[in-house]
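Not sure how to ask, but would you mind making up any protein sequence you like and the tokens describing how it folds?
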Amino acid sequence: MTNPSFAVQKILAVPMQAVWRGKQARKHAARVRAAMCVQATWRGRAVRMQMARQHAAALCLQAHWRGYACKRLYLAERAHIIKVG
């Protein structure tokens, strides 16, 4: 009886199949983790770039507002000096 019966082969095959599926699942999980890491890095970079653009826009707005406010104050003082003088 050199050939094991079908039932014995099935009993022996199930653990080997489970080991193989576990190995494949761990390999897939590692790939998913690597993809998530790449995606998180890319999203973080994109957010940092967006924040830098917003910061630059805020600085530009602030500078323009300060210039406008100073010019308005200067013209008001000048008009007052001309009126008084």
